[in-house]
Amino acid sequence: MDDDSVGAGPRRRPDDDRRRDRTLQRTINLTDAIVAIALTALVLPLVDFADASTARQSVADLIARHLGDILSFAVSFLAIALFWHTHRQLYERLVDYDEPLLLLNTGWLLAVVFLPFPTARLFVETRLRADSAVFYLSNLLVVSLIALAQTWWVRRHPGLRAPNEPRRSPALLQPVALSVTLAVATLVTFASPGGGLLVLVALPLARLVAAGVARSRRA
């Protein structure tokens, strides 16, 4: 069977198309809102540090004391932002949806919303533990793998994309690169919790390299 025929369904009436367009737009709006809430929740543990007990500390001392916590927040914020950017690029191609894609998107949102919990777990530790770092990185890996699954599903179902999109199906390289980087970081964490978290710095680089390779292949 030709790949372009996968996902093709019976012809729908105009009112059905309008209803499905609204549902797709509502799904995108809901996703953006939940991601924004998750990003906001990441900073709440940092806000707790600036209580009355720190009033006599200088800003420099406060930052120095919680530098690790601030870096964890920044890395988590960057990671979610990267995932959202990849998600946005994928959903910009869509003109339709199906139930498996909505289910995958719901799972992706669940993993994103859960991320502030393992991030906050890192904040409360005076000494980084391997299990906490693995817990945190595993959550990021789940987010990335579900994003990869969504991209794969859209590639396999061209009927979900705009009529001019089947020949330019969404590239798997970017979500694969992010997933591989996070898998490596998780494995490294078993030997060195700090080293595993440092691997996260390579996430933007992995995405840029994957995007460059994808552009060169299309050219």
Which features characterize this protein?
single chain, 219 residues, mainly alpha, 9 helices, disordered N terminus
3D architecture notes:
By secondary structure, this protein is an all-alpha fold. It has nine helices and no strands. The protein has helices at 14-49, 59-65, 67-91, 99-114, 116-123, 130-156, 173-191, 193-199, 202-218. Helix 1 (14-49) runs parallel beside helix 4, helix 1 packs parallel to helix 5 (116-123) and helix 6 packs parallel to helix 8 (193-199). The longest helix has 36 residues, at 14-49. It is globular. The two termini are 27 Å apart. Mean pLDDT is 82; it is low at 1-9.
Find the structural class using helix and strand composition: mainly alpha
How much helicity do the residues have? Answer: over 70%
- Rg, alpha carbons: 20 Å
Terminal residue distance: 27 Å
Order of helices and strands: HHHHHHHHH
- Biggest sheet overview: none
> What is the tally of helical segments?
9
Shape: globular
β-strand percent reads under 5%
Please give the number of β-strands: 0
The unreliable regions are 1-9
Mean pLDDT: 82
Summarize the structure.
With 219 residues, the protein is an all-alpha fold.
Give me the secondary-structure topology:
Layout: H1 14-49, H2 59-65, H3 67-91, H4 99-114, H5 116-123, H6 130-156, H7 173-191, H8 193-199, H9 202-218
Helix pairs in contact: 1-3, 1-4, 1-5, 3-5, 3-6, 4-6, 5-6, 6-7, 6-8, 7-8, 7-9
